[in-house]
Amino acid sequence: MTADTTKARPKNGAEAMLLGLKRAGVDYLFANAGTDFPPVIEAIASLDPGAIPQPVTVPHETASVAMAHGYYLATGRAQAVMVHVNVGLANAAMGVINAASDNVPVIVMSGRTPITERGRPGARATPIQYGQEMYDQSSLVSNVTKYHYEMRYPEQGDSLTARAYALAMSEPRGPVYLSLPREPLMEEIPEHLRDPSPAQTPATPAQPDPAAIATAALWLSESKEPLILIQRSDPIGATAAELAAFSQRFGIAVAEPFTVRNVMPGAHPMFLGNDVKGPLERADVVLVLDCDIPWIEALHAPAPGKRIIHVGADPLFQRMPVRGYQTDLAITADPAATLKALAAALPEPDLAVTTRRGRIEHASHERRAAVARTAAEGSGSPMSAEWMSQCLSEAIGDQAMVFGELGVVPGAMTPAGPNRIFNNPHSGGLGWALPAALGAQLADRSRLCVACIGDGSYIFANPVACHQIAEALELPILTIIKNNGMWNAVRRSVLNSYPQGEAVRANTMPLTSLEPAPDYLKVASASRAHVERVENGADLPAALARALTVIRVERRQAVLDVRIAVSDRH
After folding, report:
1. DSSP run (H or E) holding 392
2. Could you count the other beta carbons within 10 Å of the beta carbon of residue 49?
3. Angle separating helix axes 433-443 and 61-75, nearest 10 degrees
4. Rg (alpha carbons) of the chain, rounded to whole number
5. What's the pLDDT tens digit per position in 528-563?
């Protein structure tokens, strides 16, 4: 039976905060507790469990924010995180940076060391409560949050959380931060102020301007080689559904450069994969849907004379200080609504569209065939990342969610629909994918969730904490460690910057090797995971099958340490 949170009357600030989060729509509070938490812990123990978010103990702050991030990607619902004063917030800051980059709403909170030294509930009682004070604790995350504020009075507990949630969920979405001093968390709320605050609802998304739609439709109708670029879809897949139908009807090629959330089905006839170079060179009109980085200016900048249309909740990406992409038309609007409006404004497809559609279908088929050939060539020992990705795609079924971090090659996989493959945000805060997969698994226990990550990223993920969470919460995810013994992204960056340099010629490039490699499987075994090491590509399908059997039958997490060849591509 669900508690009626609209009538609950909190006694103090901590109770008001928890009740307010639940009223706003928060399911879970991912918490890494400290000495600022006594009023929160007491409130959890005192209140009806159905009236507050379910508390989840997370033994590292980076995992707490990433779990909320993954939960949102699986559900579209923002969750709450609370960490320990400034030191916990410092650990959580990388996750907040990732959430901001990915426009993921998270209500991030941390305690604030007591301001008072005596005479008030919550006043300082330990040495660290002196040592943890800062002049401006919010500055740790203020540059990457939509809203930040410090609670002043106990009755603000629910009104501040309501506002924080509404702002986080309003477009463009993103994380928010509340600083919670111990005094107002512990202070009693005056009787006449205990009634719940008025509800606050997130703002509705912007709808496309009819004049801008008319201009965009004219340009697209005149185009010989239109192209659509997209990097992500909304969590419910509304944009993806509109795009699949729109691109097919009007014969427009689609590419997903630097994808963070896959949008198109892998076998869609209008889908040209993730390499933007060729399609961008041929295009004369480019429709950019919610792409913060549609191409690399130094490598792929469109030639003069092309028309570029940007669409999104923030089509100019104000959060990026330097972003110089050509913009002939910027439409502030929901991408799904924009595609629907464009479909209504464009003329019916003619013979030229039919011919173009057939040409794109052929190119799409040829791309998939070439990827399959490349993958098959890498099935030896050590195997290629393409082979690993193809084997994984074939093993996991249509509904699995894969969280990649320098792991899978999206183009070598064939997702059945949108929101099947999630790559780490462009902010690059590593250690994200493994706890994000845990958050998604918590959101849907019936769905297979996979984390495929480089060995360096596995170390960054605080794997002891993550595997403990998986066991404690009974989250049977599959973790694949793409083990090439190095920070290969760093090596490739040096190779691109100094192709004839001394570092490239060195037997071991400085600051890139992770040898001698730890026995990563022992880390997972400490939390009773099923573990296997796979060194030959021919053995991978059977190892995947065994791991998936453990997950589905025993409901236990599984980890594969997969030896991957060093590549200059991935």
Report:
1. helix 385-396
2. 11
3. 50
4. 25
5. 999 999 999 999 999 999 999 999 999 999 999 999
Q: How confident is the model at residue 430 (pLDDT cuts 50, 70, 90)?
A: very high
Grouping H, G, I as helix, E, B as strand and the rest as coil, residue 178 is: strand
Question: Which structural domains are found in the chain, ordered by start?
Answer: 13-193 (3.40.50.970), 210-365 (3.40.50.1220), 378-563 (3.40.50.970)
Distance of CA 558 to the CA centre of its chain: 22
Beta partners for residue 110, in sequence order: 83, 179
C-alpha distance from residue 385 to each of 376, 388, 389, 391 (Å): 11, 5, 6, 10
Q: What's the 3-state SS for 191-225?
A: HHHCCCCCCCCCCCCCCCCHHHHHHHHHHHHHCCC
Give, in order, the Cα–Cα distances in Å from 239 to each of 71, 235, 464: 19, 9, 37
Taking residues 346-369, report their average pLDDT: 97
Strand locations in 12-70, DSSP E?
28-31, 54-57
Helices (H) and strands (E) in the chain, counts: 21, 17
Helix intervals (H) in 251-318:
277-282, 297-300
Residue type, 137: Q
- Cα 218 to Cα 209, 212, 213, 226, distances in angstroms: 14, 10, 8, 12
d(CA 209, CA 415): 33
Structure tokens at 373: 């050939």
DSSP-based helix, strand, coil % in the chain, nearest 5 = 45, 15, 40
Residue (of 353, 250, 246, 347) closest to 289 by Cα position: 246
| Backbone region of residue 428 per phi and psi (left: phi > 0; alpha: psi in -120 to 50; beta: other values) | left
Please compute the mean of the pLDDT values over residues 253-281 and round it to a whole number: 97
Q: 149: which 2 tokens?
A: 């504020």
Q: How far apart are CA 385 and CA 129, in angstroms?
A: 49
Query: What single-letter amino acid sits at 171?
Result: E
Identify which of 413, 445, 457 has the alpha carbon closest to the alpha carbon of residue 557.
Answer: 445
**99-115 tens-digit pLDDT:** 999 999 999 999 998 98
Q: pLDDT, tens digit, for every residue of 5-35?
A: 556 889 999 999 999 999 999 999 999 999 9
